[in-house]
């Protein structure tokens, strides 16, 4: 799966100005709405919050991968946020989250959805890749890092 094919500049906010988990999730869902990836913000936000109640998607290393499926989603989508100071997210390691990758899909079984989430988590566990994303100067560089990563794993 080519994650770079899902990356759109209008779905990336490298200067998140949120302080807590719910505000951040709301902002990420808003990116999906603006990008015409979802139809009804509140419906998808409710799915994301419901999923978070099962267990935090902040898996450590300053990363969170909130994900959900809803009939309001138009297509498999990825919204990305970055916060330099970090966000209180109730992560598994107790650290603030600086990179958020929100995955949205429709309710049917989708192997691409599972592959996207697992690939993201795998790549983001790599210190060098994660550090590069945290230091990227802009959206173009951020997307290029994903393209380089894909080329190196082919």
TrEMBL record:
- PROSITE patterns in the record, alphabetically? PTS_EIIA_TYPE_2, PTS_EIIA_TYPE_2_HIS
Say where the protein is mainly found.
Answer: cytoplasm
- Asked if DNA-binding is a keyword of the record, the answer is no
Q: Which GO terms describe its molecular function?
A: protein-N(PI)-phosphohistidine-sugar phosphotransferase activity
Tell me the GO BP annotations in alphabetical order: phosphoenolpyruvate-dependent sugar phosphotransferase system
Q: Which GO terms describe its cellular component?
A: cytoplasm; membrane
Question: Which PANTHER family does the protein's record reference?
Answer: PTS SYSTEM FRUCTOSE-LIKE EIIA COMPONENT, PTS SYSTEM FRUCTOSE-LIKE EIIA COMPONENT-RELATED
Q: Tell where it localizes.
A: Cytoplasm
Q: Which residues are listed as membrane-spanning?
A: none
Q: By what name is this protein known?
A: Fructose-specific phosphotransferase system IIA component
Record flagged with keyword Signal: no
Classification via Pfam families: PTS_EIIA_2
| UniProt xrefs under InterPro entries | PTrfase/Anion_transptr, PTS_EIIA_type-2_dom, PTS_IIA_fruc, PTS_SugarTrans_NitroReg
Q: Which residues form the PTS EIIA type-2 domain?
A: 5-149
Species name: Halanaerobium saccharolyticum
Q: Which UniProt keywords apply?
A: Phosphoprotein, Phosphotransferase system, Sugar transport, Transferase, Transport
